[in-house]
Design goal:
0% strand
Length: 240
């Protein structure tokens, strides 16, 4: 699978995942995950050159689209972090993500992102700021942008694994949690590898977008599990 292919696959899955949740969101169910998937669709779309260049052109062709991507991704991880911590019944993960320390981490991340973006020379649109990769401030901007998603994913890996091996849960729920655990683990692995001097080559795209694919598939299976659960309860009530 080429890097471009997996980007489009991830975009399609994100859009489909958001679309199937529209009816529930209208009824007030699952709105947090729905909003997260809509924003994730936007973030993934902005990682694809034709979409990025079109959006950035509207914003003035000064790479504001990349800043939008970063801030959108932070929001996605906050929303998913809150919802997944609840789904995994992990108060510790929730405190680490939206407690005082987690909020401080997010605030420092956003402030650093804005600082390094403003401090960089970014004339002309460049997807992922590839054309400006030799600037130290751009490198720091990219590093900061990876650390917060890695932090949130790291908070969720163990609770996701614990839910996946919980024999009391339904099989479909355990499979969904296993997919989520795999997605969060790939985010952590990617962030750690990017802290080294290794040349990841194609894996620089395959790892993060594979993480997105696994995470969205996991979210879709959790949605399906809830739908089937409600139908079973409705059926049981009718029989009663």
């Amino acid at each position: 699978m080429t890097t471009t292919t997996i980007q489009w696959v991830a975009l399609g899955l994100c859009a489909a995942g958001a679309a199937v949740r529209v009816p529930g969101a209208r009824r007030g169910r699952g709105r947090t995950v729905f909003i997260a998937l809509v924003l994730l669709t936007l973030a993934v779309g902005l990682s694809i050159a034709p979409i990025y260049e079109a959006v950035d052109g509207v914003l003035g062709a000064v790479n504001l689209a990349n800043l939008l991507l970063r801030l959108t991704l932070y929001t996605v991880f906050v929303l998913l972090g809150i919802r997944m911590a609840a789904a995994f019944d992990s108060p510790l993960a929730r405190r680490l993500i939206v407690g005082p320390f987690g909020v401080a981490v997010l605030a420092v991340t956003v402030a650093s992102t804005l600082y390094f973006f403003v401090a960089s020379e970014l004339p002309g649109s460049s997807t992922a700021l590839i054309a400006f990769g030799d600037q130290d401030t751009v490198q720091q901007y990219a590093a900061v942008g990876r650390l917060y998603p890695g932090y949130v994913a790291g908070c969720l890996v163990i609770p996701a694994i614990a839910s996946a091996v919980d024999r009391r849960a339904r099989t479909i729920h355990r499979v969904a949690c296993a997919l989520l655990a795999g997605g969060f683990s790939l985010v952590v692995v990617f962030v750690l590898l990017r802290l080294t001097a290794l040349d990841l080559m194609a894996w620089d795209y395959l790892l993060p977008f594979s993480a997105i694919v696994l995470t969205v598939l996991g979210l879709c299976l959790i949605w399906l599990s809830h739908i089937l659960g409600r139908r079973r309860r409705t059926g049981a009530n009718r029989l009663a």
